[in-house]
């Protein structure tokens, strides 16, 4: 039985996976500034709780622990969102991470986790959120990468982001005519926890968050399908 939807929000609702740091955290802050109620999903509960409290507490920001590779947790994430807020207007499939470049680097276990998170996890977020997004005629966003448009030497991560590029177009075609918009956001180098050390000349997470919000703020008849954003200093 579906959970009862106890409290219906007046303001629209923005769900973000991978919300505990980086692009997800920065997007949460920008969305909160724009009046959205938030569903913040990630595996690191403590960081989610702190961010949710900062952004307004339980009536404005709901922290939900979710491993995006687990279908049951994705279902619970959406059910929790609908139970709390009664609707879902924007879903941002943002969770993901990388690996060293070389088919002899990183462990097979790390590879498996990365592929499941970046590809399977994104697909599960789409599956879990699609019915609610159809109901609201909402907006689906995915975090791709410049690495999903060009091959990087020895990069299995690049292969996962090529898959996300294909997923974005496949779901756009499936949702055509439903009123749901689909945007693939493809950042270049971003100075986040993705890298072990600070990256000189890179984008900041907030730069990507602003690009996300640009697509979301466009009128309902405008579907910004792809945003490729590089730092000025990046040459490829």
* CATH secondary-structure class: Alpha Beta
Tell me, briefly, the overall form.
globular
Q: How many alpha or pi helices? A: 6
Q: Measure the end-to-end span.
A: 50 Å
By DSSP, the count of extended strands is 7
Overall residue-averaged pLDDT value: 93
Major β-sheet profile: 7 strands, parallel
Structural class: alpha/beta
The CATH architecture classification is 3-Layer(aba) Sandwich
Question: What's the domain count?
Answer: 1
What does the secondary structure layout of this molecule look like, with pairings?
Layout: E1 13-17, H1 22-33, E2 37-42, H2 45-54, E3 61-65, H3 71-85, E4 90-93, H4 108-136, E5 139-143, H5 156-175, E6 181-187, H6 205-217, E7 226-229
Parallel strand pairs: 1-2, 1-4, 2-3, 4-5, 5-6, 6-7
Helix pairs in contact: 1-6, 3-4, 4-5
